[in-house]
Each structure stands twice: as structure tokens, then as C-alpha cells.
Amino acid sequence: MSATLFSEDLKTNIKKAERMLIGGEWVDSATAETIAVEDPATGAVVASVPAGDARDVDRAVDAARTAFRGRWSRLTPQERGLLLWRLADLIEERAQELAELESLDAGMPIGEARYVDVAFSIDILRYYAGWPTKITGDTIPVSFPTNFGGPYHAYTLREPLGVVGCIVPWNLPLMMAVKKIAPALAAGNTVVVKPAEQTPLSIALLGELVLEAGFPDGVFNYVTGYGETVGAALVEHPDVNKISFTGSGSTGKTIIKASTGNLKRVSLELGGKSPNIIFADADLGKAIPSAALAIFACQGESCVAGSRLYAHRSVFQDVVDGLVEAAESIQLGRGLEATSQMGALISAEHRDRVIGFIDLARSEGAEILTGGTVWGENGYFVEPTVLTNVRPDSRVLREEIFGPVLTIVPFDTEDEVLELANDTHYGLGAAVWTRDLGRAHRMARAIESGQVWINCYQTVDAALPFGGYKQSGWGRETCKESLDEYLELKTVVVGL
User: Fold this and answer.
1) How much of the chain is in helix, strand and coil states, percent to nearest 5?
2) Which of 125, 131, 217, 409 could form a disulfide with 88 if both were Cys (CB 3.0 to 4.6 A apart)?
């Protein structure tokens, strides 16, 4: 491993992940087992983190419950908001260190880690830092029954749920964790965070910054381990009041079933197979590079990747040529190298899965215009890949690949492409490129998706609701509406 890339700060921060944070203390796991964390760009093991079990989850939940009933509950809303803002400041001060951890751990280019993952995490925290003082109830006039006493004074309270389990995926791990903990803490809950076993490194540094910011002990806890042990124990725990999960649809369904023991709240941000639609009148100078970014950013390991591109037949070849050129211009390399534009996939297993989809498409007669193979001798790279002539029933067109694989399909009419766009059990993201204002709004209304972008793709903001229709999940993240996922509504009626 190159010494110029493996800085002293990076070594120090990796070391932090060798222990877990429970009740404000850095502790060892109840087991002696560890999980090897790889650099996906090289396949080299860069860290060993504790393989926790249900006993560690019990300790973390107990600490979170104690904090929830203790000092944390006595802080004013303004004090909670100031702590969140202070955490954002500390992340900003350590942004480069966090970006290095994310790049090393998840394989993404350092620029994406710094100016997307870390930067948006800061923005989310500052957004939610303003909300604790604005979580209010209502006064409600009582009209019925008029013949049973009264008058009455009725009002509502919005109260925190208690302990929230945050299960974080391996893509953009810092941002995905912050999207869960920020509204949970703003609402007055405490959290137990379970990072993905592939990408735990940045969450350890986040835990250190939580302590430095001054949060009471036990408000933020994190336990490393496998999904079938730590994740399952967190979901099934009777003292966990809510689970916030981001990941695959199959795991999401398992979580729903496992959460029924105490009927805990569940919010799910699951997969996507997002349509990106380019009409004949679109500005191709903007649409084509945006379509490339929509699928090849983050190695395609994004739930809202624009993996299904539909181009009007009159501009189909121009769009295809532009996307092939864009794909072939991307420089692959280790994420920590400043010149890299696309990094490695998360693991050998996932690389092989992505290649398996490409091989399947090839066997079905799809045309691979560029890419389609493993890149390099080390690590888990897959070339940016563009496919055409894909069968309508092909798994490549219907299932989430979660890699740098783009299918391009021609269409002739608005009705036709709308049917194609909605022919999926996902509904997370979609985009429409057109200069026709009426068509843009018609399509936005008709597409079955949690968010629709017009003449742009994946524009995000902490104030914008993020979530999906159909099997893309339950609930929303970011935005003011997400706070409802972390609050109970209580009605109080007083006879006067």
C-alpha cells in the first residue's frame, strides 16, 4: 500500500474502528471474533473490527435507554439543536479525514467522498439543527359531544419514540448514517448505529466527534458486526422503538417480519431501477453528460442510479454515441488517487454479481457497446458498461444491478415511454428531459416515483423529501416530514 496514500491521519482513524462505542465508552466486543475490512481497490485487508453479537446490542440498547430517560430528556430543544450544529462544525473541520476513510472503505473517488458524501452530511446536520425548537403540537377546539360536560381544552404533543436502531448500508456510509441519526436526535431520541460490515471506518470517527461535540453519554452508540447477528438482534430487540434501514428489498422484508415482536416503527429506503427519459426536444448537451453521471457516479452503487435510459428514436443514436464516449473517457483507479473518476466496487462478490448480469445480457443477445468486463489486475473494478438491444423481460432491465451498467432503449411516443418507465416494482427516482413545459409536468405527475427530476438528475437538498413508491421503501428521509417517522403524537383533553 502506497505510503503517500496511506497517511498518518488515515492510519490513526482506522485504528479507532477496532473498538465499539457504547454508553460514551470505547469498548471491546463480547466476542473475540473480528471482521476483516478490505480496501476494494486492492483487495488488501486494512482493518479488523469487532464482530459483535446480541450481548453487545443489549449493552448498547441499555445505554441508549438510560440516556433517553436521563440527561438527554432534560435538555432543551435549543440545546439539542446546538449540539447537532456543533457536530456539523466538527465534521467540517475533519472533512478530509472522513473523506479519506470513505474513499478507502467504500472505493469511491476522493472527490465524491469529500464533496458529496461528507459535504451533504454537514448540510443535513445543519438543516436538522434548526428543527428541535419547531417541533410543536396543536390546540384543537372540541365540538362533540356538546351534551357531555365541558367545556374542554384539547391539544396535541409530539414526543420522541425512544431508542432508534439505525442500520446503515455500505454505499456512502457516512451520509447514510447521518440521514438517520440527525432527525432521530433532533426529535429527542437516542440511537444505536449498526454500520455495514464492509464499511465501518467512518462511523468510528463520527462517534468520536459526537463525544467531542458534547452529546451526553449513550445518546449515540455504535456496534459493529454482521447483519444476521447484530442487525437481527437490533431489529428484534424489545427495547428498540424504531428501525431505520437502508439496503436491499429482500432484507427490508425480513426486517418488517422481525420487527413485529413489539410492533416497532420501521422506515425503509430500499432499491431502485430509475428511468431517465430523453425526449426529442431535449438539450442533449446537458442531458447526455448528466445521464452518464447518473449511472457512473459512485460506481453505479446508488439506489437512484439512472440505470434505465430511454431515448426518443429520433435522437437515439446521438444519445448512444454520447454515452459511449462518456463511458470510455472515465478514468478508473483507486479512490484515493486524485486522478481517479470511478473507483472499485465494494467486494469481489459484488463485482462478480455485476459481471454476471452483463454476461446474462450478452447471452440473451444484448449489444455491449463499451465495457462489460473486469478492469485491472487488482481490486474489484468493472468497466463502465453501455448496453442496447436488451430484451424487455431481461433481468438486466428489471432488477437492480447496483453497478456501472446502463441500458439504453428507444421509444416513439410519450404514452409508450410512460408505460415503460412505470413497468417496475421500484419507484425511487426518475428524470425527464424536454423543453416542452406541459409534457414535463404531465410526466412528473404520471411517473410512479418518490422523486422526479426535470432537466436535471439527482438534485438533492436536506429540505427535499427522499423516498420511494412501491417496493422502493416506506417513509421519507431528509425534509421536515421525516421527523414524523421519529415522533409519537399524543392527544391531551382537559375538562375545564
Assistant:
1) 45, 20, 35
2) 125
Catalytic residue among 298, 303, 400, 477: 303
Asked about 303 being catalytic, the answer comes back as: yes
446/423 Cα distance (integer angstroms)? 12
Same domain, 179 and 74: yes
Identify whether residues 295 and 180 lie together within a single domain.
no
> What is the maximum alpha-carbon separation in the chain?
82
428's grid cell: 425511487
Question: What is the reported pLDDT for 4?
Answer: 47
Which of 83, 84, 90, 60 lies closest to 209 in space, CA to CA? 90
Q: Read out DSSP for 163-211?
A: EEEEE--SSSHHHHHHHHHHHHHHTT-EEEEE--TT--HHHHHHHHHHH
Domain count, the chain: 2
* Residue 218 and residue 145 share a domain: yes
Range of the domain at 161: 8-270+473-493
CA-to-CA distance for 403 and 295, rounded, in angstroms? Answer: 8
Residue 409 bridge partners (DSSP): 310
205 and 316 within one domain = no
252 and 299 in a single domain? The answer is no
CATH number of the domain that residue 310 is part of = 3.40.309.10
Axis crossing angle, helix 77-93 with helix 173-186, rounded to the nearest 10: 160
Q: What is the mean pLDDT of residues 321-348?
A: 97
Query: Does residue 155 sit in the same domain as residue 207?
Result: yes
pTM score, two decimals?
0.96
What integer pLDDT is reported at residue 5 of this predicted model? 58
Active site residue 269: yes
Structure confidence by residue, pLDDT tens digits, 425-434: 999 999 999 9
> What's the distance, Cα to Cα, between the start and end of the chain in Å?
74
Q: Residue 3: inside a domain, yes or no?
A: no
Residue in 38, 100, 269, 383 annotated catalytic: 269
pLDDT tens sequence across 165-222 = 999 999 999 999 999 999 999 999 999 999 999 999 999 999 999 999 999 999 999 9
Phi, psi of 276 (to 5 degrees): -125, 115
